[in-house]
Specification:
four-stranded antiparallel β-sheet; 16 strands; about 25% helix; binds CU-O-CU linkage
Length: about 575
Amino acid sequence: MASISTPLSFLSTTANVSAATSSSFTLLFPLQPKRHRYPKSKRHISKVSCNNGGDDNIISKGNRRDVLIGLGGLGAAASFTYNPFAVANPVVTDQNSCGRPNLPAGAKPIPCCPPKATNISDFVFPSNQPLRVRKPAHLVTGDELAKYKEAIRLMRALPDDDPRSFTQQANIHCAYCHDSYALDSTLPPQVKVHFNWLFAPFHRWYLYFYERILGSLIKDPTFALPFWNWDHPDGMDIPAIFTDRRSSLFDAKRNANHQPPVLVDLDWNRRGVDTSGEVEKNYAKVYKCIADVKGPACFFGSSFQAGGGVSSAAGSLETLHNTCHSWTGDPTDPNGEDMGSFYSSGRDPIFYCHHSNVDRLWTIWKEKFGGVDLSDTDYLKSSFLFYDENKNLVRVTSEQCLDQSKLRYTYMDVPIPWQNAKPKPATNKAQRAALTPTPLNPPNLPLVLNSITSFAVKRQFKSRSKEEKAEREESLVFEVAFDKSKDVKFDVLVFWKGDPTQATPKDREFAGSFVNVSHAPNAKDTTAKFIIGITDLLDDLEADDEDNVEVTLVPQYGVVPVTINNAYVSYDECSFKT
Ligand code: C2O
């Protein structure tokens, strides 16, 4: 941090509590909820929960429904559309429901739906298939590169109406990310694979079929998609295999200022190229979003069910991956096409290698950091449609992709240089005490986030026992209203005592960043939660005995108003047991 003695007077500190809002919320979130059980297949649920399996989960769903009803009365969360009589079921993609996508302003209208199939088969695990080993893109050379280029060349040569063609493959992302697939009359109205728990399984399946199609085009069942190893210094710039203009792997719509050897900035704030210790900053960012995340709901994102409402929360895996999209896309295009907007990102071959690394980090989280997959039936039974390498339309479920070995692929074991990159606090308790000005007030809600703002968020418990901490991850939750077709980023600092513009992910006080990449504009879908686990963070800052979490929000970019409708501490939203 730059200086711990920077005066805080330039901060816009909010006064005036909406006391009714905070206290009512507290009352409506009883910590020992009454045990209600709902039949698994037809139960009432909340629209904004971040659930996974287990008994606690069912309780929480019933419980949180009441919370929302309560808040509706107060008007504090008026933007959450919610029907208390809706029932939840797994999201099931229906090919007949596919229609025109909601595209951001400035995008050329395109149809995103795949050709209709007369028959849909259920996925069957591959038998007698060799194991496909995905390796870092910067290590792909010679024969492997020649095969990869040839496979993409052949894919580009297929006619547009072939479901395996380059265009159709790119449009898969457009259809699932821009509201093409309708659900039914329940909320949410469309299938969405961002800002919710479908993010990880959808993209795993997407890569699976894409890789199988490429392998079949070159008749090589061992063909494996490389991964963009942006969590290792050797892989942190755009891999050389993508930069040769004559290659089928090239895409002209990329940021001209971000060509090698410029390193990816996983905390990109759109202020030119940052050369100040990017490697360590990137390590800290990956550490925070992967190694540091305990609650599965905080890793995967909020629940998303048919009848489950439109409100949502991205998990840390998705949030981490967002910045790299915006960083790679061409800023001179209206929506940062190709990589910078979800409808177009599948047109850049690098997209699939970026996601290969995201998929790998999911695996690393489970293998090295004790991560556990979700077990909620609504998650496991959610399903998507993909054309396979033989042009057959196949229905796959999220459950079927959880065991990578059954899909016959794996990742080359390469060093994980960020695994011990835990950030250090910029100030310790004593330094903080010496610097503390007048105590901060609770936020004045709703808060339009147009400048750096600090406030205090009340905690219900402090100095919890080790067991309690292990049992329930404390989290800081923000309810955010914004236009989802616009890019947005703001950072969240806790107990920060210096100049907020100088905080970086290398500081332990830098709790996380809310990041949106342009996707479907939808007047009925303008809110999201941002949930950050803070149990260990508060321990590291020696702040577990504090009554409040001192929060500083630092807006970085976002061309439309971003409003914070609510900010509170929760002991449920990250830590459901699986
Ligand atoms: Cu569907 Cu990288 O996004």
